[in-house]
């Protein structure tokens, strides 16, 4: 086993989404089986992921691949729903791929309110601190906006609460 996703298994239908979205920026589907235990076979990407590996790519290169993968998915009416650094896969042969389409779905299907890896959820879904901070930053009167120091303190508090919350519910 090369790794394990947050859900432990590939969701049913993932191979169909991969099949409908051929892209040089997304891990290529080689095959699948439903015998005994459902499995999919994807191209091997051998140099780790963006979260756990020191990279020799620039931020521009990574962003360009990431954006192109999303364009290809969205043009095929597929949304990923679990974007994070650990699904940006690196190859020793100088290319980057977007992987882990385990909870990707067709945009026309009914979407659930919450999916994805909990610790990677957008802050606006989890915390009143974030909403208050954004509202302060967007205040019409510049004198009512937080200073750079205050912004850092608010973000540090927000991140600290997310990290210390053992129930993973966020602050």
Write the layout of secondary structure elements.
Elements: H1 14-20, E1 29-33, E2 39-42, H2 59-75, E3 78-79, E4 88-91, E5 95-98, E6 105-106, H3 128-137, H4 148-164
Antiparallel strand pairs: 1-2, 3-6, 4-5
Helix pairs in contact: 3-4
SS strand fraction:
5-15%
Assign the CATH architecture of the domain at 12-109.
Answer: Orthogonal Bundle
User: Average pLDDT across residues?
Assistant: 69
- The chain-level structural class is alpha+beta
Alpha carbon gap, first and last residue: 34 Å
Question: Could you explain the architecture of this structure?
Answer:
The chain is an alpha+beta fold and 171 residues long. The protein has a domain of 98 residues: Transferase(Phosphotransferase) domain 1 (Transferase(Phosphotransferase), domain 1, Orthogonal Bundle). It is built from four helices and six strands. Strands 1-2 form a two-stranded antiparallel sheet. Strands 3-6 form a two-stranded antiparallel sheet. Strand 4 and strand 5 form a beta hairpin. Helix 3 packs antiparallel against helix 4. The longest helix has 17 residues. The radius of gyration is 19 Å and the shape is elongated. The chain starts with 13 loop residues before the first helix and ends in a 7-residue tail after the last helix. The C terminus is likely disordered. InterPro entries: Kinase-like_dom_sf (IPR011009), Prot_kinase_dom (IPR000719), Ser/Thr_Kinases-Pseudokinases (IPR051681). This is Protein kinase domain-containing protein. GO terms for molecular function: ATP binding; protein serine/threonine kinase activity.
């Amino acid at each position: 086993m090369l790794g394990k996703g947050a859900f432990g298994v590939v969701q049913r239908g993932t191979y169909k989404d991969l099949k409908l979205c051929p892209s040089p920026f997304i891990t290529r589907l080689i095959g699948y089986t439903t015998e005994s235990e459902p499995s999919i076979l994807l191209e091997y990407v051998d140099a780790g992921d963006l979260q756990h590996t020191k990279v020799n790519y620039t931020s521009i290169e990574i962003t360009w691949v990431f954006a192109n993968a999303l364009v290809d998915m969205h043009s095929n009416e597929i949304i990923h729903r679990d974007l994070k650094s650990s699904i940006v896969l690196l190859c020793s042969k100088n290319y980057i791929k977007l992987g882990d389409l385990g909870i990707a779905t067709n945009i026309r299907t009914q979407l659930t309110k919450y999916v994805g890896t909990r610790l990677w959820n957008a802050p606006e879904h989890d915390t009143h601190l974030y909403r208050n901070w954004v509202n302060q930053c967007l205040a019409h009167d510049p004198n009512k906006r937080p200073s750079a120091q205050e912004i850092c303190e608010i973000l540090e508090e927000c991140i600290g609460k997310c990290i210390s919350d053992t129930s993973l519910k966020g602050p």
